[in-house]
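S., here's the first fold you wanted:
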Amino acid sequence: MAVVSSIVAVIMALLILFVRMKASKRPTNAKKIILPPLFMSTGSLMFLDPLFRVTKGELIEAIVLGAFFSIFLIKTSKFEIRDNHIYLKRSKAFIWILVSLIVIRLALKSYLGRAIDYHQLSGMFYLLAFAMIVPWRVAMYVSYKRLEKQLKHNPTLWST
């Protein structure tokens, strides 16, 4: 089961990378920034099953680590205005950070899997991912809104 979930994690990382590369080719909007964490939040339903519940310590560890990892995503997610639209800038650093995060995740999962029940570990990694995506998307939303406001106040300034 651990091998299957690791393979799924790698596939998801590759999917994120592919989506990110395509996203930089089209203008973005607030909805595209806000929806992923909302969709992901449905995963919280797993905690209705007592098997997936984590201790307070595990909860804090997962959230702190997720928030820490979000810093790297925030630093590599920048927007630019082209042709009176807001685009997500491509970043080579994002690719390396995403790859590094998946390697760290797999290493942690392998190490922690020896001491923590599989279900609890799944809950912890869900919390880690959610604690990573929410601050990242909030920062992206704030940055997007700032550029959107500049664009509305002076649209001809950004024409190319």
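And the second, which I think is the more interesting of the pair:
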Amino acid sequence: MEELVKFLFEVGHLKNVQRSGWWLIGNRNPESVAEHSFRCAVVGYFLAKAENLDTSRVILMCLFHDLHESRTNDLHKIAQRYHNLKDGENKASQDQIMSLNNSERDEIGCVLKEFSDQETKESVVAKDADIIECVLQAREYQVQQGLKDAEDWLKNAQGLLKSKSAKKLLTLIEGSDPNEWWKKLKE
């Protein structure tokens, strides 16, 4: 249990790691990796339901897909050009889970490998959830903070999404007002 406590504190560090890609468009205080992972898991749940897939597996991939960033930090796409990112991510993740009990280590290791390999429908939907979460965030930054260059995330997502449900969500998000949910509550 002592190793689990250390692991949980490390997971908590993800609340301190900011998503660095948003700095490129002038956002000085973007969301944390933990915030991203939480909404990614929620999106993953709904996409898995819509695609008739194993929701638990998709949620696990979404929860753990950026675990390594507590050690490697979040590197935006320009920084990624100069690093062997996949090897570093894999090594950090394997080191992180090494001290866990066999069953937890094996399960987390399997879902991380599955997510990385992108060979199952669940892994594809988990990746789509990751992208959709970024799209939601981009739309929020676009509307709420006036960051016009967030449009790039919306445009780039069009060529990256694979599932029908994610593509449909993208279309809906592009024309949505992120504030609409609470404005209706004022009436």
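Why I say that: The chain has one domain: 2-186. DSSP finds eleven helices and no strands in the chain.

Talk tomorrow,
H.
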